[in-house]
Amino acid sequence: MSGAVPEITRRIDEAKQKxxxxxxxxxxxxxxxxxxxxxxxxxxxxxxxxxxxxxxRAKQDNVSGVLLPHFESYTxxxxxxFGLTGLGKGGQQVQRSRETYARAVETLVExxxxxxxxxxxxxxxxxxxxRVNAIEHVIIPRTENTIKYIMSELDEVDREEFYRLKKxxxxxxxxxxxxDAEMEARRAAAQExxxxxxxxxxxEAPDAPDVLGxxxxxxxxx
Amino acid sequence: xxxxxxxxxxxxxxxxxxGYRNSLLTGQHYNNLTQCETIDDVKLQLAPAYGDFLAxxxxxxxxxxxxxxxxxxxxxxxxxxxxxxxxxxxxxxxxLTYGYMIxxxxxxxxxxxxxxxxxxxxxxCHPLGWFETLPVLCVATNIEELYNSVLxxxxxAGYFKGSLSHQDLDELxxxxxxxxxxxxxxxxxxxxxxxxxDFKGTPTQEVMSELLEFEADRRAINxxxxxxGTELSKQERRKLYPEFGKxxxxxxxxxxxxxxxxxxxxxxxxxxxxxxxxxxxxLTQGAGFGGGADGKSLEDMFYQKExxxxxxxxxxQFTPAxxxxxxxxxxxxxxNVTWIAECIAQHQKERIGNFISVF
Lengths: 222, 359
Hints:
Chain A: Keywords: Ion transport, Transport. Chain A is mainly alpha-helical. In chain A, about 70% of the residues lie in helices and about 10% in strands. Chain A starts with a helix and ends in a 23-residue tail after the last helix. Chain B is about 65% helix and about 0% strand.
């Protein structure tokens, strides 16, 4: 789209210069009319013109998503409202002047469609620029802040998790160490008992606990 | 004979007009005008000839304002002459104003047809075509009323009679009405100078017949040329040709049948003068309508011829025809000055010499 703007400005420049030339010729042809007719025929022409001979059609062009109106001029050849003006004198000049002015209006129409396109594109570019600025300066920083916050939160959670794991593994190690020590102690006690049995061998089968006996089971603590 | 009593009634008028003729711009004046850089300079150059009339203009006036003031002077001078004239001379002078009246009436009819406020049209009317009942035209709201109650009272009623009825006014293009009126006017004027006892057999008859014949021929040729490519039919076109002049009747008949430029130039070849014009602008080249080698169009040629004829009129004496000639010359002068001013205002100096000066 930004490629279209310099192109349009160049064409506007060309059209404006052309308009200057054409309008000058047209104004001069009007002078010729007033010389030939020798009076003011403006009113008469205004009154006798009923239908537009020179017409403009509007189309829409799509330039990268922007709808640009485009004016097209055409002449309705059948309409010749003041063809008889200046019948007595000056008719040729009147017709010539009309043709010159038709060309001038053609240039104006061309210029009009270029200028409209330019204005619309300008507006669109401004809107886009505003959006770009808004995104760049408001939305992006805001999102970045959010991202930062989320990252820090996540880090926090990570750290907590790590700490927890460390704690758990410490505890586990301690438990294992305690269990080991107990086993060791038990084994040592068993060995001691073995030693004693060897000393007094006729010891009845080790005291298998009398499940049905009177003594109670120790409470199982989970 | 005519010299014997002419001056008793009209000598003063003729003298005055001869005085006016001397104040017309000469080639030297035009030379000075073309050297001007601004409209103010033009105004300055015109000061000796136009004096007070241009004094009221603002600095650097528009060309139309300039032309308006120059026309004012023409009008003032003509009115003075008109008030001094008596008898047949006065009638003759009144005839001169009828042409302008036709333009004014055409303007008002156009306005009425489109239901405009006709009052504002009155300002646009040519002051020379002003007559007492002209404002009454504004009262009429429709064409029938306009015709029955107003136009009947005007000096032009005779020109409407017989060739135009109120139905025509509705349908016909105003240009056709105007040209029909003008044709009737020219014929009537021609009749007048040829039959009026005061003018018959005098230089007036001779001079005016020549001028009016030329005018009639010019109109016929112009109407023919300008009607090509329009909806004007050949029968209608023929009705617009004045029925006198050098081309009438053979030339007119041929003109009425003409389809293109070549047949027109064939039709006018009856008269050596017109043939020379056509040859000069090279109309046979088809598109070469606009102008020949020296940038002169057919209209320019006609104007040139008219001016030369008008100039020659001043060699005659004892005739009010000098007033006619003076008015034509003056109008051409106004056109010339307007053209020069226009060229200066628009910086188009290369065609500034395209005016017609005969003195």
